[in-house]
Amino acid sequence: MSVFPRISLKPEVTEHLRSVFINKEVLAAVGLQEAECRFQKLLTCLSHPPSYTCVRASTHLAPLEDIRLSLEEELKKQQKCSSSGEKLSIQIAQHPQIKDVLLLPVDGPRPVEQLSSEVVVGAQCGSAVLRGAHVFAPGIIASPKYMKAGDLVSVFSDLEGRCTRGATSFQGNKVFVGNGVAEMDRSAIFNAETPARGVGVRMVDPLFQSPSFDGVLPSMAFLQNLPSVVVGHVLGPQPGERILDMCAAPGGKTCHIAALMGDKGEVVALDRIRNKIDRICQNAQTLRLQSIKAYCFDSTQAVSIEPTEEYKAGPPFPPESFDRVLLDAPCSGLGQRPNMASTWSLKEICSYPPLQRKLFQAAVRLLKKGGVLVYSTCTVTLAENEEQVAWALKTFPCLTLQPQEPHIGAEGMPGAGLPPEQLGILQRFSPELSWHSINTTAPLSCRADRDTIGFFIAKFQKT
Ligand SMILES: C[S@@+](CC[C@H](N)C(=O)[O-])C[C@H]1O[C@@H](n2cnc3c(N)ncnc32)[C@H](O)[C@@H]1O
Predict the structure, then answer these.
(1) Structural domains present in the chain
(2) Where is the SAM-dependent MTase RsmB/NOP-type domain (predicted)?
């Protein structure tokens, strides 16, 4: 059910996206009415959270069913301690095809009454609340003048980033995300000498309710969107191999790859941003994985200039060093859900394809002959997805497009000149195709594959 307005984008971005979704090839395939309808559904579904939470279970540490039962126990304990009167019935489902995934239903939108005391949070924080998080103090932008710990407050998300930090009220474009109990006085949030940390508002009556995973079985349950889990399986890492994850932070997919290899072999994780490397290491440590080596490095420069150089730990690497390469590329992120507003310009969105191509060139060079390259993004544009595939197949005759296992998403979108047999083996998660037709009372395992974030996966082999 739609409760939020469509995602708010700059008009130039909306027009650009319309031209992507209503391109000539799509028009020829489905007609104008259906193409326009899909585009409108896309704008609506992007502002809403998926109807379930996906957890990747650490099946390298314990059997899935044991993890499922422990998680159920932990979440029941969490409910006993919660001050909320209403209890969630906890049903954790397994995914029918993916053997390390657990699915938890999200209950929402729920009928929640708004209160007169308002806390305003940033849009990113608001989106996290809609996916089950509490409000952390750094996310709070405004609060009532005399807010004390223990006060019941309504939480609003500031969609356009217009609220002034420290304000006592805000009349701009905001969306109600639920009620909670303040865990801090206003003065501790805005007037403290050091920035406040920890939970600022504990959500007791959220608009969309799902269990909070904060500190719940951290080594066993990792929150990850379903398409991101699919990426690891499509890459198909094998024990003993050497794998490169070129854009790795915060390391969700890196850790999955290492887990799928039974932590045997070597997973090299690169990211350009230094402080994000710590997150990769923390995640690896929490999930008890030792085969991961993380480096701060610009992956466009990851091929060594000296061609005869031997492989050594750390970048740059000689050509053909890796059995498999994952390029989970930096992208415009327009598939993320929920996302109620983006202030990005068209120029910013169009800045990604050239960077993705530079990374892709390095990926192809670093891959061994016979090796597998997986390219993925969490965005919906053609330029960052199918057009990149068309470019790659033309630029690198050594690459062939491969079928994916599992293939639970839709096919690639027409518009980049790819023939149907190639579109058919691309995997595009397109929540707009089923928006409104998803029966939220149907078993989770039936609807999970369709109610995802927007995502794209292509698999290549170097011959
Ligand atoms: C989509 S995110 C990766 C998410 C990650 N694969 C995961 O599953 O947790 C893209 C990442 O690429 C990194 N990045 C951007 N440009 C890069 C470059 N030239 N070299 C290496 N990393 C880069 C960003 O810092 C960002 O962390």
Answers:
(1) 52-105 (no CATH), 118-206 (2.30.130.10), 226-462 (3.40.50.150)
(2) 146-463
**Cα of 199 from ligand 1 centre, angstroms:** 28
Cα dihedral sign, 420-332-34-417: negative
DSSP, residue by residue, 170-181? --SSEEEEEEEE
- Any bridge partners for residue 136, and if so which? 199
Separation of 123 CA from ligand 1 center, angstroms?
22
Which residue from 407, 447, 414, 415 is spatially nearest to 431, judged by alpha carbons?
A: 447
Indicate which residue's Cα is closest to atom 10 of ligand 1: 330
Give per-residue pLDDT as tens, 314-363: 999 999 999 999 999 999 999 999 999 998 999 999 999 999 999 999 99
Binding-site positions for S-adenosyl-L-methionine:
247-253, 271, 298, 328
DSSP reduced 3-state for 296: strand
3-state secondary structure of 93: strand
* ipTM reported for the complex surpasses 0.95: yes
How many A from CA of 380 to the centre of ligand 1?
17
Beta bridge partners of 372: 324, 461
Q: Which atom of ligand 1 is nearest to the CA of 270?
A: 21
pLDDT tens, residue by residue, 297-317: 999 999 998 867 788 889 999
Q: What is the reported pTM?
A: 0.95
For residue 247 and ligand 1, the question of a CB distance below 6 A is answered with: yes
